[in-house]
Fold these 4 entries.
Entry 1:
Amino acid sequence: MEHAQEHEACLEQTQRYCVERPVYNQELLQGQLHRREKTPQTLRQKIAHSCRCSSKKAKSHLYSFLPILKWLPRYPVKEYLLGDIISGISTGVMQLPQGLAYALLAAVPPVFGLYSSFYPVFLYTFFGTSKHISIGTFAVVSMMVGGVAVREVPDEMISVNNNSTNSTDLFDYYNARDTKRVQVAVTLAFLSGIIQLCLGLLRFGFVAIYLTEPLVRGFTTAAAVHVFTSQLKYLLGVKTSRYSGPLSVIYSIAAVLSKIKTTNVAALIVGLTCIVLLLIGKEINLRFKKKLPVPIPMEIIVVIIGTGVSAGMNLKDSYKVDVVGNIPQGLRAPAVPEVQLIPAVFVDAVAIAIVGFSMAVSMAKIFALKHGYTINGNQELIALGICNSVGSFFQTFPITCSMSRSLVQESTGGRTQIAGTLSSVMVLLVIVAIGYLFQPLPQTVLAAIVMVNLKGMFKQFGDIAHFWKTSKIELAIWMVAFVASLLLGLDYGLLTAVTFAMMTIIYRTQSPQYRILGQIPHTDIYCDVEDYEEVKEYPGIKIFQANTSLYFANSESYTSALKKKTGVDPCAILAARRKAQKRHAREIKAANELRKKAVLKLTNDVEASAKHEIADDELPVNGKFADSSAPDVSPDEHEHFVEPKTSIHSLILDFTPVNFVDSVGAKTLKSIIKEYKEVGVSVCVASCSGPVLTELTRLNFFDDTVTRELLFHSIHDAVLACQVKDGSAS
């Protein structure tokens, strides 16, 4: 009782509205409205308008291209500077070891990782719109670069071992091999940068939407497995070839297992020790995040300790532990990338450009949403394009946003890209002044840093359980992206995943949900009749809704679902009528033949028995017998025998979810209207949006039989019109 009273009180407090107006169809509504006059511009006028320049427009374009001009003059030094300095130093001490480590993934000498951690980071400060992301080397992109470098410049370890044992020859070979791989990596950076720059200038920032979150997470998880397996040989200190392309993960694991007996125990101990220290450091940073002023820079600590231990114990000579080796002091002179390599690496550059942009823009959006500012996707493309293309002249390989460094840069108080600039200056100091100090650093330490930084990506395996509960289609996208990238390689895997994601879009449009709607009593609100008990259908009226647009791919399924849901199939009804007509015609024909035979027999009997008396009631009257079993029905009366007949007189198609209609969809809609009209069911369309109405007009949908009077402003308008029409018809 109390619950009922509360419900009534709630209803009394609910706002109400009452509107009295005519029942509007499109013909009537358009007749009462006055369209705004729009003068269409010619192509010449559009070009002239876009080329027109004013001081305000020039300033706007300049600020858009160089965002630093907008925020730097307003930079609040007292509020932001200290946080940016702390953040810059914290990010910088991560940039150093990660730059060295990810260079190994890219199959180039470690110093090129330092170059890639300086030039692009410095350039992004001027052109980027995000205040918090950390640009530089990233595991996934580095792995993709390394795969291309190894494919174009294969590792011929076996032939070298067989042909030469001279250390000088081996050194010259590795030096020549690394030089060629650097050329491939630099060309990739140049080409991917040009692609990103062109996409940004052409306002193609929307391409990132095709890399959905499940796809990216499945792809990066597979990339993490690739990265992990590629670092096993450095962790164990074994000599194996590096593989790329399909099944490279399996080949890499098999190669490591085949050389497992040659494991360098010293390298393994150093590597495992570093992994334990890094995991402990990350756990401390996570648990005491609020109490620590800045995260403990465990990576640089491990690098310093590893370098000191290696130099003090002479691990290279005493225990044959592989070290970083020569780190040239100072910056290299600019050089033009190898243009002749472009045809061989073009497809890979496209994949790297799109993956790099999607990584950067997704992280940028997260931070922008958190801190209340906006980013420009097209400008981010331009910024990344400049960072990669210009950086390639200074021997950098492709870069993007690093998730781990970005989180550190934001959590340590970074407010602007001043923090990124400071981190790049720290890398510059190492390149120019103290880079040689890291020459004894064991490669197993860098492998440990890479492996521990994959921890966050491996946690993405938890997505399987999450998507299983929320969306099976997104789970399928995740699994296809993961399996394809794992087995086919990152390039073909990405292409396969994107293709599959596009196919799921087609599947969803071809397999939408179809509903029959009914009215909530005493309202103009219509809901699915299967969802709510209170919802009732109007007698003789069916309201059909499909949550998809109407176009060539789903027009047939739309028609089939309409017939199934409404229970009215015009083709079946017409076929049944034709069948009934034929059956009735056969019955009439058979009756007439029986009648003729009876008359003929009677005539013969009369002639043969002329002397016998025949009762008047046995004589045929007008050629008919009263007791004849054959019915006397004229062909005009066949309509009384025709079945089935539908009890529905009106069908309303709810076009609220329809975003567009193509020529096939328009023909399908017109066919539906005509077919149902033949069986006595009038069809009308409700809630058709303006763009869809414009498309129908352009496709010559309306004619003498199909007019705008069949289109209604809302479902309720259509229902009321159908009721009036049925009342007048009856």
Entry 2:
Amino acid sequence: FFFPQVLLLACAEDLECVPGFQQKVFYIEKPFEFREDRLILNLKFDDCQGNNKLNFEVSNPDFRVELDGNLVALKNVSEVGRALFVHARSEHAEDMAEIFILEANEKRGALKEILKLEGNLGIPRQKRAILATPILIPENQRPPFPRLVGKVIRSEGTEGVKFRLSGKGVDQDPKGIFRINEMNGDVSVTRTLDREAIANYELEVEVVDMNGKTLDGPVRLDVSVIDQNDNRPMFKEGPYVGHVMEGSATGTTVMRMAAFDADDAGTDNALLRYNILRQTPTKPSPNMFYIDPEKGDIVTVVSPALLDRETMESPKYELVIEAKDMGGMDVGLTGTATATILIDDKNDHAPEFTKKEFQATVKEGVTGVIVNLTVGDRDDPATGAWRAVYSIINGNPGQSFEIHTNPQTNEGMLSVVKPLDYEISAFHTLLIKVENEDPLIPDITYGPSSTATVQITVEDVNEGPVFHPNPMAVTKQENIPVGSVVLTVNATDPDTLQHQTIRYSVYKDPAGWLEINPTNGTVGTTAVLDRESPFVHNNVYTALFLAIDSGNPPATGTGTLHITLEDVNDNVPSLYPTLAKVCDDAKDLRVVVLGASDKDLHPNTDPFKFELSKQSGPEKLWRINRLNNTHAQVILLQNLKKANYNIPISVTDSGKPPLTNTTELRLQVCTCKKSKMDCSASDALHISLTLILLSLLSLFCKSFA
């Protein structure tokens, strides 16, 4: 079904002969099937010079156009696509016709769409002053150039007028591809065209007078470049790597190969077909895979038994894939790429120990790796189907052993993590199991070879004596008499099967206060214990002792003794500060606040008792007031002259018996002017002599009396 009354570009009575198809666009309704040799439609081609050497080409090889213009199918065809293109070429002209195939439900709207698009298609609905029919030019034409490709017709004649052509390809980049004969409207191309660079040109043509004034137009002139098969298929998305699990069912899709062809996708020039040219390696079958010629899907074609990774020469196959255009016809261009297919491993082999029993020897008291257990596994070493996981399933009640996997060798590293005791057990037997990180496939199980026995022999070594308890603790008063017994230490030899004697010695005694009997371990004092010593920390003195057995060589054990020292009142209190200053005209006669401290501990320290020694002279010059348990204040009873005074003050602690310390407080009476204090002792001698005279006078009076 077509509509010639709408689609005719021009009627014979309106226009002179125009070379090419008399109708360039057709719309037909798609039948259920195009029947072989049945007329579809008739195409009229006229080169206006007798159609000498006329030849037709159809874009679909299932159709042909006979010399009389009849379009027929070469066989029964049900799938065609949306359009057919017919290229006609004679000795003097060539042209292209388009046949659009509509579904049945598209027919009603086709006429309206055609009328809407007639400007785009270059199809006139009425007689025009300028007729510019679309021009179709094959790409890759050879010289000579320029080459006549079309003609623009003016219905009112060409006398006294000129044709003017413009647009991309004429006066816009790329410039100079097309040109028009100003006098007769012949359109020429000046060089070879490349459809893949520019597929369509939209030009404009107009008619002007000799002064350049536009008379008709502009009218659109469409130039379409006809595709030639000048581009090979290309694989652009490589590298192409696919994976398939070993044992996969026949027909399992591995990967898809997709090539690209720069030619017109609507023609056979870009219709690709795929093929496997070569497979490497060729075993166990030279045809392990098949590629869908249209989709490019690669699938397996061998049985699951042949797809066994462990029996293959290599788990990697390389396929050389060919893509050919023109639907795979011999004339098609080709491109190739390599597809790499990796056969992935699945856990179809259980790990097996290389022997049923392993031997190990370890010295008592030692930790670390004692033996490496070896296994074999035929699966892929790079996967969890090969990596081993070991476990101790019997013989390890005390958790003295652990086993871990060496990630490089896959061996099981059996270690002692708790020191073994020869005297408790000289032999150990472990049962070890090995599995994979990944689970086995359902029809494979772990067998007897996945377990092994490890026989461990413990070697006896001479162990050092052990103190009981360790550390040892005792409490003593400081200042106990030299030669006092502190305690008796006790050490035993773990080597119960060996009969050895033990001797003791002092290892570390920071203050040099202690000694030990080498035979019975009695610890005594060699000096006075002093809680206030710098070697005592937090009332505790620490010393270390050695216990040495009679083995060959002898073994040594170390014991720690902590002596907590109880305080006794053996330190007198001290007074601070011992120097004070006051102005001779001071109004505030509170001279200084005194504090007392004691190295001993409570209750041998505060509260302290502060007292002034007896003052000499006719009148008292100062007094002392207690402020709290640790402080007192010295107060002048009157202003004194500038001098230095020594005030004896006694401080007594609360110990039983109490200890007293007398300290002289040096009091400097200074002159103070303008916030400056002058404490030079120029009058000190005078004051001292005065005190001396007063004292002598007092003695004289007493003796006289």
Entry 3:
Amino acid sequence: SCGTSQLCNCSSVGLDFVPLGLTAKITVLDLAHNRIKHIRSQDLRQAVNLRALLLQSNKISSIDEDSFQSLAKLELLDLSNNSLAHVSPVWFGHLFSLQHLHLQGNSYRDLGDSSPFSSLRNLSSLHLGNPQFSVIRQGNFEGIELLHKLWIDGSNLSQYEQGSLKSIKKINHMIINLRNSNIFSEIVRDLLHSVTWLEVTEIKLPVEKRSLVQNSTGPFRIQKLTFKESFFTDQTISQAIVLLKEITSLKELEAVDCMLEGQGNWNMKDIARSGQSFVETVTIIKIVIQNFHLFFDLNGMESQINNLKRLTIASSNVFMVPCNIARHFSSLLYLDFHDNLLANKRLDETICEGSWPSLQTLNLSQNSLKFLEQTAKCASRLPKLNNLDISQNNFGEIPDVCEWPKTLKFLNLSSTQIPKLTTCIPPTLEVLDVSANNLKEFGLQLPFLKELYLTKNQLKALPGATPIPNLVALSVRRNKLNSFSKEEFESFKRMELLDASDNNFICSCEFLSFIHHEAGIAQVLVGWPDEYVCDSPLAVRGAQVGAVHLSLMECHRSLVVSLICVLVFLVILLLVAVGYKYHVVWYVRMTWAWLQAKRKPKRAPPKDVCYDAFVSYSENDSDWVENTMVRELEQACPPFQLCLHKRDFVPGKWIVDNIIDSIEKSRKTLFVLSEHFVQSEWCKYELDFSHFRLFDENNDAAILVLLEPIQSKAIPKRFCKLRKIMNTKTYLEWPAGEEQQQVFWENLKGALKS
């Protein structure tokens, strides 16, 4: 079962019979290369919509008469390479839509007494015959009026009834494998008015003296005659040239993989006497001439080549054409000598003065040419030469100056080992191909150039547009291009096609941005997008250029780093501003000092206590402290020993250390509070250190003296400890009256003694 698929592929699965369950959904059924021997009536009855039935390379020896009866829509039937011993017209009676029928490679010896194909009105191509096929009878092709292609394997055909193929009114291309040379002439006579192109293989051309035309009258239809793998002699060639002239419609002769046994000793008198040839195109490919070095120069053929317009002799060891022969190709427009043995020494004889006067296209590729200057000089003798192909020769270094035909527009120098281009290249060119030459640059001034092919070179950038302003098509496929810019691309004002495929592209941000945003680039790039692949960065290697999108960080690394640096700077600036506003620096310094103080003993030994009190006051209150309070306390009886920063701090010692040491060497800390005190940073330090000590030792080491009333709003937020102490401890206020002042001093002295 093939399920719901319209194409059922059951080839090469070892089937012995047509599988069951074929439905009307199937349009293509492939049963090739199995072991099927018999096609039964019911096998294909349900496959009414079948368009193609492939049964080749089985072992089919019998087919029921109504096996194909339901296949009215069938267009292709392949029964080739089976074991059919006969061909029955009943098989094809209901195949009204059949266009292609393959019956070759079976074991039938003939097609019967009548036509098996009479009902196949739409037949377009027919393949039949086999090594046992020996007879073609009149009426075998009745019912067929038009064939696009007729292929007959008649390698052992021994009997052909005259007129058998005449029933087919028109055949575009007929191929017949024919070894019996006696039948060849009869078949040609029957096909004069029907076939357009006749191709004969494996024939040993006969010596035919009867006319190929005989009583037939024009106009004839046959235009091209091809011989493949055939055998000729000097005698058969001479006779064939004479006889083929009678077919006035014949315009093209072709010989492929043929063998000529002879030395060119042709009957020139008979050939000349038979008149002009109507053939315009001769193609000879891979002809083998035994002892070709003894071959004549074909003198006497001059009259037969005047009307020839296209001549191809390829892969046939041609090393020279005599000058006197070359001068008689007066109408030749196209000459192809590719894959031969032409060298510069013999080229001078082949293209002599006055030779090939009408030649427009010359192909000398894959020969033994080594000197471009000499080759160009020979070509300059061709006044109408327009197209020259000298590719696959070995020129190497080329000179700076060469002489070329003034009409030359197309030049192919691909695969010629040229390391560097010079001004030897003609400026008249419209098309130049210098592919596969390991070129590293291209800078020639070619103002008329429209197409430039630089495939398989070593270019790292597109050529400059200024020297080639009219370029329409450019190929730099398989070079060392990493990228190309918008400016380079747009400098070619008339560019319609650019083939830059198969290069190792560096998918940079600039290149990708250009590719993604350039309007219409997909219509210009040949092979886009499949053949444009990233080689780097590593993360996108192997990906199609058009599908790659790099991140902002990958594309603008410097900008992103700069932005990060700016952001970091702004954050630091913000932190500094916040720290300044909220005195963070002060807190840090305070914490550091406190940590240092914490490492010291909590309480100085009694012998180290030198003062009764450390006095913390603002410099603006120094007059009251030094002249009033110090005199009153230090001259009391007994006197109190006070520690003042002006008098008792150790010179050169860090002020914070002085504060800490002084507080630790004093039994009490006396704070003289005023508006000036809360504005002093050092007073803040002294208050905080005293507060640490107060809580560390859980005692009443702090004494507060309020020199003047302080508004709570006036106390800065950083004096949070002062607020706390004032809320939790009793403080002394400095009175204005003298009587109250005496009580003040008594209370202060009492606090210092406690």
Entry 4:
Amino acid sequence: SAMLAGCRQVLPAALGRALRGRAARPCRRAVSTSWCPVGAAFDVKQQPQPRGSAAGRETGLFGVPELSCPEGFQEAQDKALQESEQLVQKACSTPPGPETVMIFDQLSDSLCRVADLADFVKIAHPDFAFREAAEEACRNIGTMVEKLNTDVELCQSLRRLLADEIVNSLDPETRRVAELFMFDFEISGIHLDEEKRKKAVNLNVRILDLCNEFLTGTHLPNKIDKHILPEHIRYNFTAEGNYLQVAGLHADCPNDLVREAAYKIFLYPNAEQLSCLEELLASRNSLAQLVGYDTFAHRALQGTMAKNPETVRQFLEKLSEQLSKRTQKDFEMMTKTKMKLNPQNSKLMPWDHPYYSGVLRAERYNIDPGLYCPFFSLGACMEGLNSLFSQLLGISLYAEQTQRGEVWSEDVRKLAVVHETEGLLGYIYCDFFQRPDKPHQDCHFTVRGGRLKENGEYQLPVVVLMLSLPHSTRSAPTLLSPGMMENLFHEMGHAMHSMLGRTRYQHVTGTRCPTDFAEVPSILMEYFANDYRVVNQFARHYKTGQPLPKNMVSRLCESKKVCAAADMQLQVFYAALDQIYHGKHPLEKSTTEILKETQEKVYGLPYIPNTAWQLRFSHLVGYGAKYYSYLMSRAVASMVWKQCFAQDPFDRAMGERYRREMLAHGGGKEPILMVQGMLQKSPSVEDFVDALVSDLDQDFETFITDS
């Protein structure tokens, strides 16, 4: 939706240039005296603020005074709606010029500031009343956005600017932002006659409802009469009277029969979910065609790095070709392992892949997470990130004491991100620990976008990083497994993009950029997390202080290449399926027949009759026609790593180039131009494929010197 196109990006599983012109430079902000080193802050319990102390003053969530109670959402929302009414009038009466874009961005900002914050609160706040109030605010702002998206007069003010020769005198970022706003109007059908425009609005509303319904359905457990299952495996599932509940695939269970049963029961087709998916795909297609696109995929890929479905298809086909021999080898290894453990039944099935690839990893490279955790205390990992950012980018992270009412749980930590010459860049709230009812996904939320305000000051970005780490105990601090450590680095990559994507307009701040570029900064951080030179700076045993032995890091890296081709082939299959579903309609076959055909052709393990995996494919909602993004972002991250950081992961000149070329622009520059600026060449589809495939063969030792 136009005004919110930038906001609401939750990135799953994401550096800044001082703005153009003197006025845009943020004044150096005073260094706060309440900052303390970041590592220590995570290894000690935060003390509650006594009433009456300076830091004990009452405030609301994120320091927004109204949000000290759930009712405050109504107040914040009313204020935003009132402000937006005034801005709409201002936009319509302002002569065409750069100010038009500024007003549109203010309008977007006033709505996003409430919607983004509410989007986070509605899923993460422990208090139901807060969650409910936030949900209501989201709905009301959403309604306002629908109204604005079809406001012909508002759209005219932007159209006048884009049609005027003055458009040629706009700087590239302003022009791009104007075009992005226009694009958002057009995909809402603003250029259609009134009847078709109404139809577009209704389709948009229906699609939103179908998305919510489908998403809920992807997680619902399936029930089965317990007598159908052999008695000795029933204890693996939750009993409910005469029924057993199957709520997932039990992919890590060592018993083949349990995995088989879970697969067949959990993926058994549900008629309502099936018709919901069919209607969702058909509605998306109708909307795309109504506003002038061939398919939904054509509409979704506009402005991305890939640009169109043809490029995505080419990328996936070429990648699949390159992977096929390697994937076959992986499947053969898994089959051999299965034969050893289950000689009667050794054919490799789709429920075997995740389990046996894990068995192979563990067999070959003793990588029990228990051996690694003691070296990765949360405090040590945070100090490691701090040290890396300081060497690469001149940035330090400090823990800042929060005020009463500012955070939603007492274990949330607030970090100030400070540049050595530019001062305070923004804030990261770290919601890192498990608690009841907290969603399990690791993600990054933009709560407030950065932008240059009318008075010349810079509105500092605010983000939340959400993880699900274990709490510290009496005898040990919070200890991370290697996977958790890599996730922390990944999410911190998003946060740095947000802090350093220091754009003039909040509509393109930080991670508000095309999906296939948004994951590049976060995946690049995984390469740093897997490099011994980086890990060796911070991984210390929490009791003895002994560093993590180098061979343990090498073993971990090598283990990740075990069955990596088959894992990637599975991702190619999901991406290909997503493209077909959002391609030409009406679909030639049912979604299940398409699944069967694509699975056998692209993935290679047999389709199991009476299963419908697509009904559990939750990414179809947030990543419709864009599931390929993760693979393409990984390809770019791999190229950037090899070309710019593999020689020296602490190279400051490269860090600055990375900030200047890739992070500084947020979504304010075409993604492929940012990649070209960094790599100093324009990568082809073949380059993307080669980068991914060479990672499978890469000997990690090549980058590890004995210094």
